[in-house]
């Protein structure tokens, strides 16, 4: 009975560490990483200055479309070498997926984004390989203009939520604002 209790306690502790590895942090007063191993295990863990938005860059080229027409916004993402972001969908529900969202308006509506295929990597902090994005990748966002959309230029405010991790730690999630120039002809 004691052995079963000890195994249960150890299992809960290991599961808790796995959750802490890439769990979402709603608010934080610093950009300190969530340490998976000892704080001295990673130079990034010592500096306490890395945020998810420091290691991920995103952009989208301006586009033109006709009133009543459709277009595809390509959100280009670049993840700094040595880091990854969780795929969409993520491997586990508690991981924070990479997610693009848009404030539609001015006669524009967006459909469901198309997320790229992920790569599967094994990390010291996870029992199972995780689906992630590394390096350069791209999310496609279908966009439609209403037939009554006013002609002219406008800015479509996109947001990209990411949570970056390295081999030892995950950092607080962040949001990148990506203004996209859209011209309705």
Task: Itemize the secondary structure elements and their pairings.
Layout: H1 2-22, E1 34-35, H2 43-47, H3 52-55, E2 56-60, E3 63-65, E4 70-79, E5 84-86, E6 99-102, E7 108-110, E8 119-121, E9 130-133, E10 136-145, E11 152-162, E12 164-165, E13 169-170, E14 174-184
Parallel strand pairs: 3-14
Antiparallel strand pairs: 1-13, 2-4, 4-10, 5-9, 5-12, 6-11, 7-10, 8-9, 11-14
Describe it.
The protein is 16% helix and 39% strand. 32% of the residues are buried. The N terminus is likely disordered. The protein starts with a helix and ends with a strand. The protein has three helices and 14 strands. The longest helix has 21 residues. The chain has a four-stranded antiparallel sheet. Strands 3-14-11-6 form a four-stranded mixed sheet, with no helix packed on it. Strands 8-9-5-12 form a four-stranded antiparallel sheet.
Summary keywords:
185 residues, alpha+beta, 4-stranded antiparallel β-sheet, 4-stranded mixed β-sheet, 14 strands, elongated
Please work out how many helical segments DSSP would assign. 3
Order of helices and strands: HEHHEEEEEEEEEEEEE
Strand order of the largest sheet: 2-4-10-7
The low-confidence parts are: 1-47
* Largest sheet geometry: 4 strands, antiparallel
Whole-angstrom Rg? 20 Å
User: What fraction, in percent, of the residue positions are helical?
Assistant: 10-25%
Overall 3D shape: elongated
């Amino acid at each position: 009975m004691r052995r079963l209790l000890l195994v249960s306690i150890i299992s809960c502790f290991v599961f808790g560490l796995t959750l802490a590895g890439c769990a979402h942090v709603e608010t934080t007063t610093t950009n300190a990483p969530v340490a998976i191993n000892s704080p001295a295990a990673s130079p990034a863990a010592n500096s306490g200055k890395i945020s998810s938005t420091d290691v991920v860059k995103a952009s989208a080229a301006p586009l033109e479309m006709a009133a009543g027409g459709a277009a595809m916004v390509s959100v280009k993402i670049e993840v700094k070498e040595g880091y990854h972001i969780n795929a969409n969908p993520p491997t586990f529900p508690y991981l924070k997926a990479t997610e693009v969202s848009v404030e539609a308006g001015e006669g524009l509506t967006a459909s469901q984004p198309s997320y790229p295929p992920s790569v599967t990597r094994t990390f010291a902090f996870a029992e199972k390989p995780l689906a992630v994005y590394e390096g350069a990748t791209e999310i496609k966002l279908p966009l439609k203009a209403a037939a009554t959309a006013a002609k002219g230029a406008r800015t479509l405010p996109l947001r990209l939520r990411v949570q970056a991790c390295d081999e030892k730690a995950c950092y607080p999630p962040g949001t990148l604002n990506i203004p996209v120039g859209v011209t309705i002809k």
